[in-house]
Amino acid sequence: MMVDVLVVLDAQGALPSRNALEVLGAAQRLADGSRGKVKAAVLGGPVEGLAAGLFEVGADQVLWLEDPLLVDPLPEAVVAALVGVVPQTSAHVILMADDSRGREVAPRLAHRLRAGLVTEVIGVSAEESSVRFRRQGYGGRCVFELEATQFPVVGTVKLRTMEPARQSPGKGKEEVRMSIGLDPLRVRTRVLGKVAEEVRGVRLENARVVVSGGRGLKGPEPFRGLEDLAQVLRGAVGATRAATDAGWVPLSWQVGQTGKSVSPELYIAVGISGAIQHLAGMSGSKTIVAINSDPDAPIFKVAHLGVVGDFRAVLPSFTATVKSLADR
Amino acid sequence: MNIVVCVKQIIDPEIPTEQFRLDPASKRQIRGGLSLVISAYDQNALEVALQLREKVGGKITALGLGEPEAQGAVKSAMGMGVDAGVLVSDPALAGSDSFGVAHVLARAIQKVGMPDLVLTGCVSGDTGNKMVGPLLAEELGLPCLTFVSRIEFKDERVVARRIVEDGYERVEGPLPLVASIISDDSNVPRYSKLKDIMAAARKTVPVLKAADLGVDMTRVGSAGRRLLLRDAIIPQRESRCELVPGDTPAEQGERLALRLRELKVL
Amino acid sequence: MAPFRELYWNISAHWLIYPLFLPFAAAFVYGCYRVVRTIWSGQPEIGIPPVARMLRDLLTQAVLQSRLLEERVAGGIHAAVSWGFGILFIATCLVAAQDYFGIPTLRGPFYLYFMSLSVDLFGLAAIPAVCAALYRRYAGRPARLWKPRDTEGYGLFLWLLLAVLISGFVVEGLRIAATRDPWGAWSPGGWLVALGLTRLSADQQAMWHRAIWWGHAVLAFWFIGLVPFTLIRHILAAPVNIALRRHEPSGVIQPAALEEAEHFGISAIRGFQRKDLLDLVACTECGRCQDACPAWQTGKPLTPKGLVLDLRDHLAREAAGKPTGKAMVGGVVSEETLWACTTCGGCHHACPVFIEPIPKIIHMRRYLVMEEARFPEPMQAAMRGLENRGHPYQGAVPARTDWAKGLDVPVLSERGAAEYLYWVGCAAAFDERTQKVARALVRILRAAGVDYAILGDEERCTGDVARRIGHEFLFQMHAQANIETLNRYDVKKIVTACPHCYNTIKNEYPQFGGRYEVTHHSELIARLLREERVRPVKPLGKRVAYHDSCYLGRHNGIYAPPRDILRGIPGVHPVEFERRGERGFCCGAGGGMMWFEERIGKRVNIERTEEALRLRPHAVGTACPFCLSMFEDGIRAKDATDELQAMDVAELVAAAL
């Protein structure tokens, strides 16, 4: 069947963000094979140059959703806006990133549209008379295959898992400006303030290299060793839920089911046993290295390279060798 | 402040990989001899509720939905100190998707009596779904705060810390509202007092059926699902882990770096 | 003529001693009454041991003071003082016997050999002993006498006793001089004093004699009157405590009935049994328990002496109706103190009056854990693991039988029966390092042709850690489940490599109807070596220092078999720790401490590892998975992995096969 996809994006600068490209990639996969259309709805308003970038990666139409409440919007505002817009686009599938906003917007939108809902999608395919979605379940231990035969369906795309959109100019180049006219009283919650946790160097979700620490570190101090290593590798530091629940490191460092999804080139897991909820956030990494003193730790079942040993003794020499290799 | 906390009973997820098995017919996990626990983030939600009650008073009700064994989860919540527990259990509800679950929970909450605050865990401990909180908000027509911790009650409004990609936001909303709770060092679930556990074990938990709640049966059960569950597979991992040799950990560290360079990863 | 001494010579109106004694006697009686009433305010159920056993304990410990004498100097001083005091007291009573009943104690050879010579010699020995005690206490100031707080309990007494002794000899000397006693030399002390008194006239001697005689009486009566009000009450309380002491091994904790209990654990001083309160009263503040305590020796706030003193003072204030308002648990005894105890039993085995701090600590822990649910995080996680998974380890763990993969280990459910059930324990199943010990043991069993099987997945944690932490409920659940499984298979003999499992199954499961013949793997291996059913042939060429596990050694008296094993392996040169055997120093993991992150002071296992490193062995030999873990951790922390290894005795034997 022909699948028309509506992709919901933030207005974040003139170039489509990495998250946007991943969502568009999923849309491409559905629309290309089925000869459907991809429409990109951008929250906030026209951004100079962005439309061109979106067309280049397969968008047939760009909808600028304009309203003051859609600038850095609250989920409730986005839901209200999309409830009006989606029926007008006659899209079969509505996709957005599975980020802190998408997690709330998608279910609420699906409820109001009486649409289907699938979250953290890791694979999509257009079938003869249905659309199939794949997502992980049981913390990543298995993969579910779901089928939608009724539409629309709202979906969130698991980040750092699907291929980003390829260069593929769309069939149309239409830009539509839509003035939404949201009632501020409908948005019942407020953001009082924002605290950005200090990100030294690279952002975790975009890092090429991630060095992560878990329960085996037994405290916050050893994370400094990981930060040193991350700095040498020009990467970011992550952590498991055990470490963040204990308050050793900020929550925004968490990789896993309730943390970030990452798929760097290199993921180094230090003192991490490999609880399934953590694996759910990093199993897509290209090369996984595990350092753990327990040879039976599940992490070794997913790692490509492993060192069975005490990280306190392994890491310093590893860091030193990496440094000297970099210096050459 | 009256609070309802939704608790889900799941099979203990902290098990070795070999003990995880799927039933090919129902596509669900086979329990075997594994224990049943309350989903982790629901436990954090219970802890948040208990801390709020300590500060501002009120009544906490634990609401469970599931098989008859889910009584254990409700009793466990009562052992932590919540004031009352209710279980909704009905074979007709089996196989419901998140929409169905949210619908039934909403009906049950209305039946029990609309509280000031409805709490759920942010993520379900088995399916990994994050939907029930926001769906509940829609069903009940309430505002919603997702992925929050550190809930406070200030000037008739709820203030909380919401986790976002690069840090957190301080958010607030009016009562009543629905909040989905994420874990952090402020809401580590407390250990239950033995007396409370034993007292809870002696109590009977009222069990409600779909008919008691006026549930719209077209939206629940396997038939009410909006998407069909076609398959569930356990992916086979073919990769073998190459263990880096070495007589000492320091040597292993060095060899690891060199190997990564060999593989052109570094 | 027959030797004799005139009764009450020179003391006319000697009947006055009775009205003189009266107020002191009244004070004594009143004081004793108060003490007894205080003890009686506790819970009833003092078990009375059989008479023969009580007499034997009194003889060996109260009279011969064998445990006290394990410390040569201090014990010697105390023996001289106490026997001196005792003999002199008996002598005085024998004088009264002549006065009231006409028994001729001051006559004949008995008078010479006992009443004169022996008594004088004991008295003479006591004097330098008292001086030595004074010197030791006030000049030497050993830490165990003065910490955790200064004690002035004995100063007055020692001076008083000295005065009584000296005045006694002076009185004797005056009498000998004044009466020109023909048998004076039979009392060497008095005789020596008399030599110095020749300058005085007979009248002066008589006058001084009378004065000092009355003075001596007053001092003695004063001493008696003060007994119940000061630490000297131990001359009465200690023998009673010794006679009534509990005879279970020090590693055994008594169960509590939980079903109908109103409250769990003990949170008020009156909740303790009377015997426990007697313990508090009998304490002499000697501090030997403190010297033996691994927590105190590494800077934690826990000292058994401090615990007993705090509880005792709290009891006194409560009984006097002057409560301070401080809660016993958390206030009088801090929570850090309670969570620092490894239940090693060093205090139990050091105390000369057989005080038991461990059950008191466990009772208070039960209150914190079961009543208040207020206890350290990692222990909570261990308890949750026990509830949900039947073992205290968390995170992603292997299955219970993974260690045995590929080794063809027989499982009881398939075999049906076997001579020995090898109880593997949670450490060997879930801790990677300990799995090697299990594999080594299985190799040995197979080589020796021992018929054994394991329970496999049917095994649950014995519950030891739950009971030591104070979660009696969880312990009983596990004990009952395990006993049911064991009885279903009609298990008779059990062998285990873990002393904690050993102690619990052997000594504590009978409390719930589970009775089995339990052997520790070191005992079994030692026997197999003796019977040559297993022959280690490869010389290992190692110096091995054997570390006594508290639960194997001190609590269960098994010291020799692991040493026999080491001697039986070719090329192994055994070396002893200084703190060994019954005086061994804990590794730090008992009492639930394996699941506790020590933040105060030095870590106990680091202390013991340093002690090991000083011996410069190739390896430390262990017979307990906790000790093994603690040494591995300590060796890593001291960066000594190149110099020192930790190995279980089974691994050493297997390596030599």
Structure described in brief:
The complex is a heterotrimer of chains A (328), B (266) and C (657). With 266 residues, chain B is α/β, with parallel strands linked by helices.
Secondary structure elements and pairings:
The complex is a heterotrimer of chains A (328), B (266) and C (657).
Chain A: E1 5-10, H1 18-34, E2 38-44, H2 50-56, E3 61-66, H3 75-89, E4 93-97, H4 102-113, E5 116-126, E6 131-137, E7 142-148, E8 153-157, E9 174-179, E10 190-196, E11 209-213, H5 223-233, E12 236-239, H6 241-245, E13 266-270, H7 276-282, E14 287-292, H8 299-302, E15 305-308, H9 311-327
Parallel strand pairs in A: 1-2, 1-4, 2-3, 3-9, 4-8, 5-8, 11-12, 11-13, 13-14, 14-15
Antiparallel strand pairs in A: 5-6, 6-7
Helix pairs in contact in A: 3-4, 5-9
Chain B: E1 3-7, E2 9-11, E3 36-38, H1 40-56, E4 60-65, H2 71-80, E5 84-88, H3 98-112, E6 117-121, H4 132-140, E7 144-154, E8 157-164, E9 167-174, E10 177-181, H5 194-202, E11 207-208, H6 210-213, E12 228-233, E13 242-243, H7 249-262
Parallel strand pairs in B: 1-4, 1-6, 4-5, 5-11, 6-10, 7-10
Antiparallel strand pairs in B: 2-3, 7-8, 8-9
Helix pairs in contact in B: 2-5, 3-4
Chain C: H1 17-40, H2 51-63, H3 72-101, H4 108-140, H5 143-146, H6 155-179, H7 188-195, H8 202-226, H9 234-243, H10 274-282, H11 288-292, H12 294-297, H13 304-319, H14 335-338, H15 346-350, H16 357-371, H17 377-389, H18 412-415, E1 420-423, H19 426-430, H20 432-448, E2 452-453, H21 464-469, H22 472-488, E3 493-496, H23 499-508, E4 517-520, H24 521-530, E5 542-546, H25 560-568, E6 572-576, H26 604-615, E7 619-622, H27 625-637, E8 645-648, H28 649-655
Helix pairs in contact in C: 1-8, 1-10, 2-9, 3-4, 4-6, 6-7, 6-8, 9-10, 10-13, 20-28, 24-25, 26-27
How would you describe the overall organization of this protein?
- The complex is a heterotrimer of chains A (328), B (266) and C (657).
- With 328 residues, chain A is α/β, with parallel strands linked by helices.
- Helices cover 29% and strands 28% of the residues of chain A.
- Chain A is elongated.
- Chain A starts with a strand and ends with a helix.
- With 266 residues, chain B is of the alpha/beta class.
- In chain B, 29% of the residues lie in helices and 26% in strands.
- Chain B has helices at residues 40-56, 71-80, 98-112, 132-140, 194-202, 210-213, 249-262; strands at residues 3-7, 9-11, 36-38, 60-65, 84-88, 117-121, 144-154, 157-164, 167-174, 177-181, 207-208, 228-233, 242-243.
- In chain B, helix 2 runs antiparallel to helix 5 and helix 3 packs across helix 4.
- With 657 residues, chain C is mainly alpha-helical.
- Chain C is 54% helix and 5% strand.
- Chain C has a 4-stranded parallel beta sheet with strand order 2-1-3-4. Chain C has a 4-stranded parallel beta sheet with strand order 6-5-7-8, with helices on both faces.
- The longest helix of chain C is centred in the first third of the chain and has 33 residues, at 108-140.
